[in-house]
Amino acid sequence: MTNESYDLVIIGSGSASFAGAIRAAELGKRVAMIEKGTLGGTCVNVGCVPSKTLIRAAETRYRAIHSNFKGIVSKGVDFDFSTVIREKDMLVDSLREIKYRDVLHAYGSIDYIEGEAVFSSAHEVKVGGRTIRGEYFLIATGANAFIPSIPGLAEVPYLTSTSAFELQELPQSMVIVGGRYIALELAQMFQRLGTEVTILQRSERILPTEDPDLTTALTGYLAEEGVSILTGVTLARVTHDGSFTIFFSREGEEHRITAEQLVVAAGRKPNTAGLNLAAVGVEVHPDGTIETNGYNQTTQPHIYGAGDVIGSPAFVYTAAYEGRLAVDNAFAGNTAAKDYSIVPYVIFTDPQVAGVGMNESMANEQGIQVDVAKLGLAEVPRSSAARDTRGFVKLLKQKGTDYLVGASILAPEGGELLMELSMAIRYKIPISELSAMMHPYLTLSEAIKLAAQTFDKDIRKLSCCA
Fold first, then answer.
1. What are 109-137's pLDDT values in tens digits?
2. Alpha carbons 248 and 277: distance in angstroms, whole number
3. pLDDT, tens digit (0-9, with 9 covering 90-100), for 176-233
4. Which class is domain 2-145+269-332?
5. Is the pTM of this model over 0.70?
6. CATH number of 345-457
7. Do domains 2-145+269-332 and 153-266 have the same CATH topology?
8. Residues 6+ apart with CB under 8 A from 35
9. Which of 101, 63, 84, 222 is nearest to 165 (CA)?
10. At the topology level of CATH, where does 153-266 sit?
11. If we measure between CA atoms, which residue out of 204, 179, 210 comes closest to residue 394?
């Protein structure tokens, strides 16, 4: 039995953990990082990195078969699913080594400890036979797949987004339970790779927090590629006998569907079980997320939380922001409150969904009057030249002002447009300045200029660069 003391003990090794550990090291603190699973957390191992490289692989295959130009006709494409998966694994291993393990080695004041941490007192955790003592703690244990209570589901070999990325053979058919960003990215990816995909979504629309015009358009684009989307579904039970059969009701009628694979992508739940939080006075919400204040401080003053485990926006960059913020507040005395007023996000479907600030639905719910400018991509020269005019850019300004309060984008590579709008909202750049700035002709960024002009002009009456 050993007893070791640190200025900061971090439980978890993902984005929030590393941001916090690096910040503490910069402040001259001695840090212990404890991880019971794989170094690097969700993003590099089972989230952002593997999903985005497989999405790009699927797009490459799809574009090789489906050209936007009549003069280019595909003669077929060679495709090896197992090689694509192997390349994904190599990328994950490489980034884990370069961006996580090598980073740890660069900081001599950070000790990496493998094992499961369990609080034994307010200032101590047990890790195997070791007792690790900390002046401050940062809980950043992340989240994993939420599995809904569906009769029969616990008895069948369903997949989650994690295990779906580990398949070695491409399934012929797949049912995905869920209709938000993980489910949609998976659905289009597998459909483009050659799987017949059906989405079963409980709500009446996919992405129910987005505006209806966006979700209606995206539903149409996915359907054109062959994805079957069934909304308003109530799942009854699941069976498995070589293949999966899912029984459900929809619009008052009973249905069943059979598929080779079943993926459950119905949300995430925090990893708080097993930490023994109640014994040390750290309170959790009914959904399992840790209760924190505006400084990321838990109900124990010396214990902080960051990332998915506190129920904040579930993005790797918000987790990193929270990890650094928590450490600054721990050692400086809660001097900076967290600010989620400007959180840009991207859903990596094709076309991508991107947004920042308020959408129309949110403005209506909050009683904020807005003017809306909506520009179809058919009005953007770059999109016309690429023969791909799917989607639109929608800007919201508060009525009576010249300032943006939100933006929604549905466009191929639409996420690349987002930061200009985020900066405009954050630093209150007038819309009139956005519309007057020179945007390079035949770039997609010109869509922002044109959308800004749409507030007070009919752009169909303007020449290309006017």
1. 999 999 999 999 999 999 999 999 999 99
2. 38
3. 999 999 999 999 999 999 999 999 999 999 999 999 999 999 999 999 999 999 999 9
4. alpha beta
5. yes
6. 3.30.390.30
7. yes
8. 12, 13, 17, 112, 113, 114, 115
9. 84
10. FAD/NAD(P)-binding domain (3.50.50)
11. 210
Q: How far apart are CA 286 and CA 222, in angstroms?
A: 35
Q: What is the pLDDT of residues 80-115, one digit of tens each?
A: 999 999 999 999 999 999 999 999 999 999 999 999
Report which residue type is found at 177.
V
Contact indicator for 172, 95 with CB cutoff of 8 Å: no
Structure tokens at 319: 């987790």
293 to each of 297, 303, 415, how far by Cα in Å?
Answer: 5, 11, 31
Specify burial of residue 236 (Cβ count, 10 A radius: 0-12, 13-18, 19+): middle
Domain edges within the chain? 2-145+269-332, 153-266, 345-457
| 3-state SS, one letter per residue, for the chain | CEEEEEEEEEECCCHHHHHHHHHHHHCCCCEEEEECCCCCHHHHHHCHHHHHHHHHHHHHHHHHHCCCCCCCCCCCCCCCHHHHHHHHHHHHHHHHHHHHHHHHHHCCCEEEEECCEEEEECCEEEECCEEEEEEEEEECCCEEECCCCCCCHHHCCCECHHHHCCCCCCCCEEEEECCCHHHHHHHHHHHHHCCEEEEECCCCCCCCCCCHHHHHHHHHHHHHCCCEEECCEEEEEEEECCCEEEEEEECCEEEEEEECEEEECCCEEECCCCCCCHHHCCCECCCCCECCCCCCECCCCCEEECHHHHCCCCCHHHHHHHHHHHHHHHHHCCCCCCCCCCCCEEECCCCEEEEEECCHHHHHHCCCCEEEEEEEHHHCHHHHHCCCCCCEEEEEEECCCCCEEEEEEEECCHHHHHHHHHHHHHCCCCHHHHHHCCCCCCCCCHHHHHHHHCCCCCHHHCCCCC
